[in-house]
TrEMBL record:
<feature type="transmembrane region" description="Helical">
    <location>
        <begin position="273"/>
        <end position="292"/>
    </location>
</feature>
<dbReference type="GO" id="GO:0015232">
    <property type="term" value="F:heme transmembrane transporter activity"/>
</dbReference>
<feature type="transmembrane region" description="Helical">
    <location>
        <begin position="207"/>
        <end position="229"/>
    </location>
</feature>
<feature type="transmembrane region" description="Helical">
    <location>
        <begin position="394"/>
        <end position="413"/>
    </location>
</feature>
<dbReference type="InterPro" id="IPR003568">
    <property type="entry name" value="Cyt_c_biogenesis_CcmF"/>
</dbReference>
<keyword id="KW-0812">Transmembrane</keyword>
<feature type="domain" description="Cytochrome c-type biogenesis protein CcmF C-terminal">
    <location>
        <begin position="315"/>
        <end position="640"/>
    </location>
</feature>
<keyword id="KW-1003">Cell membrane</keyword>
<dbReference type="GO" id="GO:0017004">
    <property type="term" value="P:cytochrome complex assembly"/>
</dbReference>
<feature type="transmembrane region" description="Helical">
    <location>
        <begin position="96"/>
        <end position="113"/>
    </location>
</feature>
<dbReference type="GO" id="GO:0016829">
    <property type="term" value="F:lyase activity"/>
</dbReference>
<keyword id="KW-0201">Cytochrome c-type biogenesis</keyword>
<feature type="transmembrane region" description="Helical">
    <location>
        <begin position="618"/>
        <end position="638"/>
    </location>
</feature>
<feature type="transmembrane region" description="Helical">
    <location>
        <begin position="6"/>
        <end position="26"/>
    </location>
</feature>
<dbReference type="Pfam" id="PF01578">
    <property type="entry name" value="Cytochrom_C_asm"/>
</dbReference>
<dbReference type="InterPro" id="IPR002541">
    <property type="entry name" value="Cyt_c_assembly"/>
</dbReference>
<feature type="transmembrane region" description="Helical">
    <location>
        <begin position="425"/>
        <end position="443"/>
    </location>
</feature>
């Protein structure tokens, strides 16, 4: 009975979403306050129905209701409780329902926290979100229903993909989806602004918190996925330029550009049309990533489905949402009033350069990702575009981007003189040159050297920005402290996020100096790597809740002193007839010692084991930087000016459409 209730709740949510898409939009066009007032109630009602539907699916998984096809295909009696719950979204059908739920949460959030918005704008924003929600819920009901029954019901389920039975990947999808779906709110604001024919400073102030929140979640989701690849897949890497990985990076790049351009709209009422286009483009890329993962076009360890019917449905939804919004943009964008004028050498000018470089990198990644499937589709040729292409094309554009990141926060608005800014950054430049000299002695490859140098420049520039704001060492320390306490949290958050970029890039550059060996050893044999002695001391079998494991013990010593003991393992899942690796990592935040247990061989009565050993300098900094970036965004969101107090619209400002 529970699955039927969940299915009914999903159908009810779809009906409410359809009403949410139509009634408030009609009310806004007719200036009917009664219809516009329905928007929050419909959004909250849809959210409650989706929450109940999702809870029914989780309940079915916990209760091992194998009459539900989704549970039978992705769960098992022996599966731990945590993974029974998180396995709900570790498959195509459950992940679509989760996507719909998060979209409902976004609509509910606008309904609850958008009380200060003009009633017509609020109604249009919620209506656009309702239309997108209705499309995804219809997709869930027709081609991807997680409540479909199977008869006769099996006694036990097939279990989930063992690679997904991991805490990191258990929470990676909800965080990543929240980032994807979160950009639906700026998208809805953009469409509403186009319908209304009005973008001004108030609009920029309203959009920016939603864009920053989505960007924070997407940053955490990408970082968590990269970390999972690093410590679960066992190949020692962190980013493979996999097409599905790229599908998350593309909206992150345009979302970063959106966050910065929204600042210009808010502060200077410039870049209005460009910011609206970025809001549409970022959510469009999020939807496109969903199509790629679920259409069967891309083969990836991250891909959920290989069903053309589902791909055709999503393609139709993409055409409606993306095509419709771009058509609206083409028709209505010329009616938007022009914004403020600024000199090329100004903070606005550097933010424009920031946008150009971010979107150029996005174009490179998009081209490299989509070129192989298009070549296969059009000409039947199979080609591969991998790390060498992306390193050679995207990385060189990231270097000037980081140079401008160090300069941007110090530049005045509207018009600036470059020399005074450089004088205030003299010590940051000196520190960067010292770092360059020290690193050039150890790093011979040019690109990692330049990347690491620019990373130091970005971190130093972020510190210099705060030091300049509090006039450090130019006034008494107590006075500087008082100024620091009065600094806007948004300024502190921006500096922290920029510093996080520098920390991540330092980690990426240092990984170019990583060392690794693949060795075949017997128990008691020692191998050397990075000045450390790695000794395989024991290999034993151990049972797990739904697997059997082979666990190795590796002692790592430096000059005879025990540094750590690693326990890499191989797990065999009998129900799926699949074996996975469990990486062992010892970190001191400055480097990782990384061990992987490979195959077992019998050689003339002697048993040997293949080991993959890695020494990865500054590896934790890659994900630490991502965490710092996200914390910077959260700190910015905690600034009360980001959440309330948007400037009131003047009655004569902008151009209001009559249709």
């Amino acid at each position: 009975m529970t699955p039927e209730l969940g299915n009914f709740a999903l159908a009810l949510a779809c009906c409410l979403a359809a009403g949410q898409a139509v009634l408030p939009m009609v009310g806004a066009q007719r200036r009917d306050p009664r219809l516009m007032a329905l928007a929050p109630a419909l959004a909250i009602g849809q959210l409650l129905a989706l929450l109940y539907s999702f809870a029914c699916l989780v309940h079915s998984a916990i209760q091992d209701d194998f009459s539900v096809q989704n549970v039978a295909a992705n769960s098992a009696v022996a599966k731990p409780l945590l993974y029974k719950i998180t396995g709900v979204w570790g498959n195509h059908e459950g992940s679509v329902l989760l996507w719909a739920l998060i979209l409902g949460l976004c609509g509910g959030a606008v309904a609850l926290f958008g009380r200060d918005l003009p009633s017509a704008l609020r109604a249009r924003v919620i209506a656009v979100l309702g239309g997108v929600s209705a499309g995804f819920q219809l997709f869930c009901l027709t081609t991807s229903n997680p409540f479909d029954r199977v008869w006769p019901a099996p006694m036990d389920g097939q279990g989930m993909n063992p690679l997904l039975q991991d805490p990191g990947l258990a929470f990676h999808p909800p965080i990543l989806y929240t980032g994807y779906v979160g950009f639906a709110v700026p998208f809805a604001f953009a469409v509403a602004a186009l319908i209304e024919g009005r973008v001004d400073a108030s609009w920029g102030r309203w959009v920016r918190p939603w864009a920053v929140a989505a960007w924070c979640f997407l940053t955490c989701g990408i970082a968590l996925g990269s970390w999972w690849s690093y410590y679960v897949l066992g190949w020692g890497g962190y980013w493979f330029w996999d097409p599905v990985e790229n599908a998350s990076l593309i909206p992150w790049l345009t979302g970063t550009a959106l966050v910065h351009s929204a600042i210009v709209v808010e502060k200077r009422e410039a870049l209005k049309i460009w910011t609206v286009l970025l809001a549409i483009g970022t959510f469009s890329f999020s939807l496109s990533g969903t199509f790629l993962v679920r259409s069967g076009i891309l083969n990836s360890v991250h891909a959920f489905a290989n069903d053309p019917a589902r791909g055709i449905f999503i393609l139709g939804l993409l055409g409606l949402v993306i095509g419709g919004s771009l058509l609206l943009f083409a028709i209505r964008a010329p009616s938007l009033t022009a914004g403020g004028v600024f000199a090329p050498v100004s903070r606005e000018g550097l933010l424009v350069l920031n946008n150009i470089l971010l979107c150029s990198i996005c174009a490179v990644v998009l081209t490299g990702t989509m070129y192989p499937p298009f070549m296969s589709l059009l000409f039947g040729k199979t080609i591969s575009v991998g790390k060498p292409f992306f390193d050679a094309t995207a990385a060189p554009m990231a270097i000037p981007l980081m140079v401008f990141m160090g300069l941007g926060p110090m530049m005045p608005w509207k018009r600036a003189q470059l020399w005074p800014v450089l004088r205030r950054l003299w010590w940051a430049g000196a520190l960067t040159m010292v770092a360059f000299a020290l690193m050039a002695w150890r790093v011979r490859d040019l690109l990692p050297l330049l990347a690491a140098t620019c990373a130091v420049w970005v971190i130093a520039g972020s510190i210099a920005d705060i030091a300049e704001r509090i006039r450090l060492f130019r006034i008494p320390v107590g006075a500087s402290w008082q100024r620091a306490r009065m600094l806007p949290r948004a300024a502190l958050g921006a500096a922290l996020a920029h510093a996080g970029v520098g920390v991540s890039v330092l980690g990426l550059a240092a990984m170019s100096q990583a060392q690794h060996r693949i060795v075949e050893v017997h128990v008691g044999q020692t191998e050397m790597l990075a000045g450390d002695a790695w000794t395989l001391t024991d290999v034993r079998a151990a049972p797990g809740p739904n697997y059997t494991a082979l666990i190795a013990t590796i002692e790592v010593r430096h000059d005879g002193r025990l540094v750590t003991v690693l326990h890499p393992a191989k797990r065999t899942f009998a129900s799926q007839n699949q074996t996975t690796t469990e990486v062992a990592i010892h970190t001191n935040l400055m480097s990782d010692l990384y061990g992987v247990l490979g195959d077992r061989h019998e050689n003339g009565g002697e048993t040997t084991y293949v080991l993959r050993l890695h020494y990865n300098p500054l590896a934790p900094w890659m994900w630490l930087g991502g965490l710092i970036m996200a914390l910077g965004g959260v700190l910015s969101l905690s600034d009360r000016r980001m959440r309330v107090g948007a400037p009131r619209r003047a009655a004569t400002a902008g151009l209001v459409a009559t249709s």
